[in-house]
């Protein structure tokens, strides 16, 4: 442990929010606390304290893998109730983390992205068909709802060869989505519980939902095993059949179930939010939208229904910048936690015990002074190559950090860039509801009730 004199030790502001009680927007509440109390503060809720940090210098330190590692904090402990030792919620020391990570990594290599591209395009076209039908009827589209349909079908088809058929269910989602959202909501709400209240009914409802998720997973796995298909070139194939590169063992049945639930959730919920925020910003920023349309026109000409090649997606640089910037302002998995490997002083002045959790509040890190004078401004130029090269890599962490960072990042970005490219190429967006951004939290972030109306692009647009 590094020693510091008592003068060097800093006092961390302690903010007790128990009087306000549980809120359904805890993340936005924490952002307000950071604005008011600065980049390091301790939040107390019903006797439980949590340390938050938001500044680039401290996050840079927390990203040092020699001194810090992922912390499975209270939110993920709750999610563990239904994903157990799946990749996202596994403890660092659990043998199944390293084992599954090694076995599943090939599913996220560049060659695999190439293999997923056709399934991603198939589902993007389902969304476009649904949006064409809305356009023909002149009715608005509910953006987050349709993005969720799109991303669930994509991870289902590309990762598991399983079709959730989300666009043929009318206004309903696949019941997996409703059960999953309730499970995530339960995990979030449990964080702010009044310890004296009775939560039996909520807990029973949660158990029923978690059991339902498991039956969907059994269907997904059962469909593959019944087909006699032994491919190992997608996620499910790797989970079921691939031996560990070092010791030749495969994943056990309980862990496979945890991984399938993990990937079905992690693989769609956050990407859906990211696409929704990106569309929101494009709707409100005609210049950024114009540049996006120009980029797709250069690639696909005036064909409203192009056949994007795998390589095209890497050429949609502006659209990728739009997505990056949307994820800067609203990183849809908006916090991650770190813990010290040994007792230490963070920033040379905040004592931390080994194993003690620290939450990085990503949306506030993304508004650090390193981002300039007007961090609230949506400006995709922040992700121009020169601007990126001039900035610390630790200023931007929508996908977490280090060894436990998001394994699905390229998957999400390929899928989202392609869909956004196809949408801006085909439609004009009309802000018929004069939408004002409100953010809904269900552990992840989404623009609440965001709708828009579509019009066909003409050659003059
Ligand atoms: C981990 C964000 C898409 C699968 C993470 C973490 C973040 C994140 C912040 C780290 C959490 C922590 O440190 O506790 C996002 C965002 C996405 C996205 C913002 C979309 C825009 C995806 C997709 C998949 C995926 C598409 C799968 C196909 C995972 C998994 C982990 C993870 C399995 C755990 C990795 C490990 O600990 O080994 N993600 N994610 N994510 N993500 Fe993503």
TrEMBL record:
Give the signal peptide, or none.
none
Q: Which residues of the full protein are shown?
A: 1 to 461 of 1064
What is the protein named? Answer: Bifunctional cytochrome P450/NADPH--P450 reductase
Task: Identify its protein family.
Answer: In the N-terminal section; belongs to the cytochrome P450 family.
Determine the domain of life of the protein's source: Bacteria
- Residues binding heme are 406
